[in-house]
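Researcher: Please predict.
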Amino acid sequence: MNIVCRAPKELVILECTRYPSVEALSRIVAVVMSSGESVILKWAEGVVFSYSPISPSTELLVDEYVKGRVFWSDVVYALMPDYKQSIRVGTYDIPVIDVSPNPLLSEAAKWMKEQA
């Protein structure tokens, strides 16, 4: 048996929104949570973020994934220099996961930080 684990070659983000603060991003996330959706924020490289991946649901997208191209429909982020396990907004505790070990998410966070 041959097992191959290879990192994507390219990440394409269709919409990217930087919030001026963790508090501003968290307020938006709290609104989403109040509608019943669960949200878990990710953290790496001093950036807290959430993204929506596009699943390879068509033959064209499957081909792109096989070639190493990953697509996110959108990402929202804010700078957060120090990691915290959760962010409190009103009655909501928004969980934050440290995704630093993940090469794709870490590189994406570095890119977001450079954009800030």
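Model: The mean pLDDT is 93.
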